[in-house]
Amino acid sequence: MSAGGPAFLPYGRQEVDAGDVAAVAEALRGDLITQGPVVERFERAFAEYVGARHAVAFSSGTAALHGAAHAVGVGPGDRCVTAPITFAASMNCGVYLGGTPIFSDIDPATWCLDPHAAAAIEDARMIVPVSFAGLPADLEPLRATGARIVEDAAHALGALRDGRPVGGPGGADVTCFSLHPVKAMTTGEGGMATTEDDELAERLRTFRTHGIRRGAATTPGPHDGAWYYEQQELGFNYRITDFQCALGLRQLERLEGWVLRRNALAEQYRELLADDAERVALPPAAPAGSRHAHHLFVVHFAGGAPVRRRLFDGLRAAGIGVQVHYIPLHRMPYYRDTWDVPQDAFGHSDAYYAGALSLPMFPGLTEDDVVRVVDDVRRLLDE
Ligand SMILES: *Cc1c(COP(=O)(O)O)cnc(C)c1O
Predict the structure, then answer these.
(1) Which atom of ligand 1 is nearest to the CA of 183?
(2) What's the half-sphere exposure (Cβ side, CA atoms, 13 Å) at 322?
């Protein structure tokens, strides 16, 4: 950027204010800065926001997904299904436990996992639908499969599926969120898993802390004394700190406003780009009765890879931090080479990838910023 030019616009950015900083500082002065009371307070407030019975906080969204895959019983050789258009963690979580990765293509109308194609896969142990960009994925066709459903809702905090919050009752067996700074709200690093099921919640909590349980109700003993605990399975240290949760509590208070702001910005993008539909396809909208969370605002260029490349480079040169979400996972050398994933079996994902570009989308974006982005998109398309 040249000095005095327009400010660099990232594709996503956190909102942290003086009150957030004060809340974190106060938590740091407490007696317990981890494994203390703020973690539970944050979990209760988060559970209330999505209407869930249980919310279990983790050190990252990836850790929450790993915990969820463990909780639903993924083990060696179990088939784990997700779509290629997602972040690696959606599939890695099952593979960490010895699961076998099975990719299933996206539906070009939603850019989410095609639930009918996924439901036709035999003997899946876990299906991980991703509510991509913040659009609630259709879970209904997956329910009759016998597979456990772990929704990757890293993009979808604040979304409504048929009027009900993603992560609450009527959703997946376990729903996982990310609290990374580019997501809807942040704790720095952090994640959350929500469930209606008491046993799954207990398994998530145990996994988060080494596989250790305490208390007479869950430890058969023999009980040697008040210090007694048992490591009953193999878990990890996936805990989040109290000062991160102090930030999370503050962020949660503003979350609903941010989701509405993202929706308003998306509406502005849609209006400004509406008459260019032949060159730029707009992202799939939420169906009636549902609400998009708009973690991302992805447009798709009709000209495919060469046009997207020109737009990416041109917008970056103009100080606009566009991104590409995502390079299809089946193309990653790890999955391609280690698992012999067929390279030409996911045509909708490849076609999506060829033209996709994420435009800036975060609550601090102004209407003038959106106009600037759209003007630059048009200028580059006209070149
Ligand atoms: C961000 C993200 C994750 C992982 O979350 P972290 O908190 O970064 O570990 C998982 N899945 C998707 C789709 C994501 O976007």
Answers:
(1) 1
(2) 25
